[in-house]
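@channel sequence for tomorrow's demo:
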Amino acid sequence: GQGRPRGVLFFAGPTGVGKTELAKSLAELLFGDENRCIRFDMSEYSTPQSDEKLLGAPPGYVGYQEGGQLTNALKEKPFSVLLFDEIEKAHGGIFDKFLQILDDGRLTDGKGETVYFSESVIIFTSNLGAVARDESGGGAETLVTPDMEFQAMREHVLGAIRDHFNLRLGRPEILNRFGNNFVVFDFIKPPVDQAIAAMLVKRLSKGLMAKWGVTLKLAKPALEQIVAQARQQLHHGGRGVRNAVDFTLVTPLTRFLFDHLDAAGGEDSLQGATAAVKNIVDHGPEAPYRFTLDAEVTRQ
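structure tokens (generated this afternoon):
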């Protein structure tokens, strides 16, 4: 009969290092479309009735006709990557369903229809061991830092995952289903941050060309300034790099281009122009505009 899922992976490690991005890339690689990655944020499944949300309410209950979010998604797209994000936030009772998926590759929804997981790849992600759960409702405390050796960090993260399933949930059988399929992500460290910054700048210049017809040229010192800002927030991972690109380049560049619009021609007046950014000037946190560009616009 129908078998188990095609693949099961458990992505762990710090936040903002590409766990969700990699799941999307896998969907693109396996199924030709990153929208084949169907994401479930497990913090939305933290109550005892959460399994009804996933599988649909039983007959006679409110919402019975709607079906479950997971079973509906799978009926629509059997060939997909199912991403269960931050699995540690899910209600313990949901794991009976996950065991069934991992063992039998199928589930029966509230309407009595069976859905099969044999064409899907299942990815769980977790920040366990990287960020402490704070029961009191304050901020989460960071347990691992970018300056740690990867091996030490990996051991720490895997230990925290084992503790969570074995001691906290009392469900060692769940861990056993993952075997060796744990992938612990490292922090984003140099030179990877440079590569991400360069990729985001490339994406930005594509957008500028599409929207305004402007060619963006970024000199090396300007890119170095972006990376320097990104390095101050490496604990935010790829998000930190994206923030740095936004506040050091995107915001000042938008202001700069608006200043160079020809009032008569509006946005069209920049068609075919080149914006050459020589450097990004940091005026300090107190300044009304912290970053401005040393740049010029040349029109053909």
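heads up for whoever presents: The CA atoms of residues 204 and 210 lie 10 Å apart.
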